[in-house]
From TrEMBL:
Descriptive protein name: Arsenate reductase
Family annotation (NCBIfam families): arsC
GO terms of molecular function: arsenate reductase (glutaredoxin) activity
Highest taxon, organism lineage: Bacteria
Keyword annotations of the record: Arsenical resistance, Oxidoreductase
Length: 145
């Protein structure tokens, strides 16, 4: 019997990258714990833990597009991690997604196929919403040009 493979995905269903990531997790035969982070935002301590495990800084996971990033002047390099976390707590949409946690690590899965490094083998072909073929019919990653 295969060992349990517990995966958590911090997901935004309105985001194509997030939807593709979730679909690849399921294509690997894994039903993840899906956290819609805009409805249930991770707290500051969890964000710190996730970023430490992923080897990322707070600044590296800030989302600019479609957020109050510019209005809050978050590009200001004088802002501390604590100030950036204050902004993320007040505006969870600033946290880029999808963040995926698996027994193989934690990663911000942009592009979505980055999730493949965190999963067991894919169960057949996977094609992203935009038509890009990522995994072939044998479950192998397709080389990109």
């Amino acid at each position: 019997m295969p060992e349990a493979f517990d995966v958590v995905v911090y997901h935004n269903p309105a985001c194509g990258t997030s939807r593709n990531t979730l679909a690849m997790i399921r294509n690997a035969g894994v039903e993840p714990h899906v956290v819609e982070y805009l409805k249930t935002p991770p707290n500051r301590a969890l964000i710190r833990q996730l970023l430490a495990r992923a080897g990322l800084s707070v600044r590296e996971v800030l989302r600019e597009k479609g957020t109050p990033y510019a209005e809050l002047d978050l590009a200001d390099l004088a802002l501390t991690d604590e100030q950036l976390l204050d902004a993320v707590e007040a505006h969870p949409v600033l946290l880029n997604r999808p963040l995926v946690v698996s027994p193989k690590g934690v990663r911000l899965c942009r592009p979505s196929e980055a999730v493949l490094d965190l999963l067991p083998a894919q169960h057949g072909e996977f094609v992203k919403e935009d038509g890009e073929r990522v995994v072939d019919e044998r479950g192998r990653r397709v080389a990109t040009a």
